[in-house]
């Protein structure tokens, strides 16, 4: 296949840098406006000495006062506003809401606390809180491995009338591959960061077995499996067609997903970023099983299963785009149909290196990235307020800062990363926080003013740049 230009040398990159430079020419907020937007100390849900020390240290290295202000507001936002700590059976328990929705998504909660892991070894209180998230996610998976979001207790749900096997502990029951991958990522990352193995108790081992079982069921090699979902709604993407099982597929070893990380229904059920993420998760399960649990049989099963999905990805994850050549599809159906797009929700195609699924310099990834960040991706938007990945979930023309952040986290081009920082600064709409999405032509028109995942991921970006590209902050 003929080599294709990377994004760093393409017209896409030149337009992006020009756009970012124009936005950066806008006047900054007055210095007196950069007062903390954090809750008063007495109203914060959780505090960590290590996190506070990191904020003070990193802020000093950020020359731009607005970026420093945003970092101070955003990095601790999960701790300040979304964490509820306690104990169950003498073990730490931490419930983490997503922000403006009073429920715990497995994906969001794992992603929200992820940037705090490097600080956990030096802060016992923080370490206990993080262990509580792992323990709570274990209990959630044991309640129902097909659910994506959970209540604090058996309180019922506004979605209780969904046509699926709802339980009072569930907030929502949309099956998404990444809902089981993120808890594995967090448990593995917590263990690596702290050396603490206390979370890997018999309940965690049962939950790990359920994860593998659910992945097997959703390969649908013999039958469609036990999961179906229908919702009475005017929004088509809130429900699955054909009796709640989704559009037809030809099973090939890939895992089927009912919904995407955006909580929108898949068009073709074989969701490619989720399958890459599942391979990584299975290898992490294998490592924990062999090293911590001394369970060689389970480790071998996970490793074999990861290889099986990898083989299926090799045969079915790509397609021939008329302009970009051979690239990764977002979804496939096994009949030869491929959906060429990317969504800002993570896992996404652009975020695969961030999740440890592919190296940044992988040729197929770079070709796919060039497509994702081009006008040939139907959910990549440009406007007077900026440019970036969007999602069908928030409507046409709405850019997601999650996509801008993952673009920066998966780039080695310092000019491209600087452009992303400038866009994030220019589109916070004077709030000091990161939102779910903003209009490509007016950043003051945004969705979700309290979206902790986006806030904390922005904090992770700043910490990453502080360690790897300090001159971009200076």
Structure description:
This protein has 474 residues and is α+β, with helices and mostly antiparallel strands. Helix content is 42%, strand content 11%. The protein has helices at 11-24, 49-59, 65-74, 77-81, 106-113, 124-143, 177-194, 202-217, 241-244, 272-291, 296-316, 363-372, 401-409, 414-426, 452-468, 470-473, and strands spanning 83-88, 91-96, 104-105, 149-150, 170-172, 270-271, 318-321, 325-328, 331-332, 338-339, 380-383, 386-389, 398-399, 437-439, 442-447. A hairpin with a 5-residue loop joins β9 (331-332) and β10 (338-339). It is globular. It has a single domain (7-473), classed as Glycosyltransferase, CATH 1.50.10.10. The protein has a three-stranded antiparallel beta sheet. It has a three-stranded antiparallel beta sheet with strand order 6-9-10.
N/C terminus separation: 41 Å
Shape: globular
Let me know the number of strands. Answer: 15
User: Reading side by side through the largest sheet, how are the strands ordered?
Assistant: 3-4-5
Q: What is the CA-atom radius of gyration, in angstroms?
A: 21 Å
Number of structural domains: 1
Which second-level CATH architecture applies? Alpha/alpha barrel
Largest sheet: 3 strands, antiparallel
What is the beta-strand fraction?
5-15%
Low-pLDDT residue spans: 1-8, 23-28
Q: Compute the average pLDDT.
A: 94
Helix percent reads 40-55%
């Amino acid at each position: 296949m003929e080599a294709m230009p990377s994004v760093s040398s393409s017209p896409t990159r030149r337009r992006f840098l020009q756009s970012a430079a124009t936005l950066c020419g806008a006047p900054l907020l007055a210095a007196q406006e950069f007062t903390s937007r954090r809750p008063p100390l007495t109203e914060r849900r959780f505090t960590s000495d290590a996190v506070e020390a990191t904020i003070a240290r990193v802020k000093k290295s950020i020359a731009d006062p607005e970026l420093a202000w945003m970092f101070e507001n955003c990095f601790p936002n999960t701790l300040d506003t979304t964490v509820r700590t306690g104990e169950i059976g003498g073990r730490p328990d931490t419930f983490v809401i997503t922000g403006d929705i009073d429920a715990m998504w497995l994906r969001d909660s794992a992603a929200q606390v992820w940037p705090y892991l490097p600080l956990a070894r030096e802060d016992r209180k923080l370490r206990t809180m993080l262990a509580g998230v792992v323990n709570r996610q274990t209990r959630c998976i044991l309640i129902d491995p097909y659910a994506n979001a959970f209540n604090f207790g058996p309180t019922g749900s506004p979605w209780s009338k969904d046509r699926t096997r709802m339980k009072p502990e569930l907030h929502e029951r949309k099956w998404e591959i990444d809902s089981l991958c993120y808890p594995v990522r967090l448990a593995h990352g917590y263990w690596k960061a702290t050396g603490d193995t206390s979370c890997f108790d018999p309940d965690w081992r049962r939950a790990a077995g359920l994860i593998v079982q659910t992945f097997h069921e959703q390969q649908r090699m013999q039958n469609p499996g036990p999961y179906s979902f229908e919702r009475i709604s005017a929004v088509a993407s809130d429900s699955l067609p054909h009796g709640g099982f989704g559009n037809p597929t030809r099973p090939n070893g890939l895992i089927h997903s009912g919904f995407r990380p955006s909580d929108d229904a898949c068009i073709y059920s074989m969701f490619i970023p989720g399958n890459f993420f599942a391979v990584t998760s299975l290898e992490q399960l294998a490592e924990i099983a062999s090293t911590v649990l001394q369970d060689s049989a389970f480790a071998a099963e996970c490793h074999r299963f990861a290889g099986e999905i990898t083989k299926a990805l090799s045969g079915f994850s790509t397609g021939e785009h008329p302009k970009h050549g051979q690239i990764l599809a977002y979804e496939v159906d096994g009949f030869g149909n491929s959906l060429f797009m990317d969504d800002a929700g993570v896992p996404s195609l652009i975020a695969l290196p961030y999740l440890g699924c592919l190296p940044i310099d992988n040729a197929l990834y770079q070709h796919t990235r060039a497509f994702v960040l081009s006008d040939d991706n139907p959910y990549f938007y440009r406007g007077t307020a900026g440019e970036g990945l969007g999602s069908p979930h928030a409507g046409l023309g709405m850019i997601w800062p999650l996509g801008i952040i993952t673009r920066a986290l998966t780039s080695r081009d310092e000019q491209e990363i600087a452009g992303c920082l400038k866009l994030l600064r220019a589109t916070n709409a004077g709030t000091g926080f990161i939102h779910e999405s903003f209009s490509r032509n007016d950043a003051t028109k945004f969705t979700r003013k309290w979206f902790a995942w986006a806030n904390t991921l922005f904090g992770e970006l700043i910490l990453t740049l502080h360690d790897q590209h300090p001159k971009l902050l200076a």
